Amino acid sequence: MKIGDKKAIVIGATGLVGQALIDELQHSDDFNSITVVVRKKSDTLKTYSKVNQLVLEDFLLLNDEDVSTYTHAFSCLGSTIKQAGSKEAFYAIDYEINAHFADLVQDKNIHLLVVSALGANANSPVFYNKVKGELENYLQSLSIYKLSIFQPSLLIGKRSEVRVLEDMAQTIFKLVEKTWTRPFKLKPVTAEQLAHTMLLAAQTQTAAFKLYDNLSIQQSK
């Protein structure tokens, strides 16, 4: 089977969603190469034949030349205030790095696909939602060839790091999941569902901008 001519660059590839996305891209006939930006080489990523690892200690060191040859740029990069260590550190990861990544792809024929969150709102009193909302607003203000924003609810999957509240929520959800068969706004989604939605967007989106809400993510796989 002929492999397509799409080329992806990915930040946040070693996280829960990022790993699921790499698996989707690896098995997609549309993509012939995947570059992942990492702070140190990953043994897991070495097992994917299409993957090349670009090692950068600081993702803000990414430049125009690094991204110019790709058709698609994916960001699965995200943290929590607790994981980052402070509000300032969280902002630096979730806003500043993602904004820098977007700056690099604007005015190029590159489709940018970014994971945000349900509840993203620049006017929110909740700092996490506020930052996500500010990022979404900034992305939409840029001259980007094609933009996709994804707003998942709680993500189900096995994380490499411990997130106590999310782990508790996942456990509770799994106990009652059989009774929650129909989609609803707050229903958690799996990392695989989100990654598959991102791949479908990369393959089929024709609009210059599209927001994929939690309901549409639920229904993708």
Automatic annotation (TrEMBL):
Residues 8-84 form the Semialdehyde dehydrogenase NAD-binding domain. One of its GO terms (molecular function) is NAD binding. It comes from the Bacteria. InterPro entries: NAD(P)-bd_dom_sf, Semialdehyde_DH_NAD-bd. This is Semialdehyde dehydrogenase NAD-binding domain-containing protein. It comes from Acinetobacter dispersus.
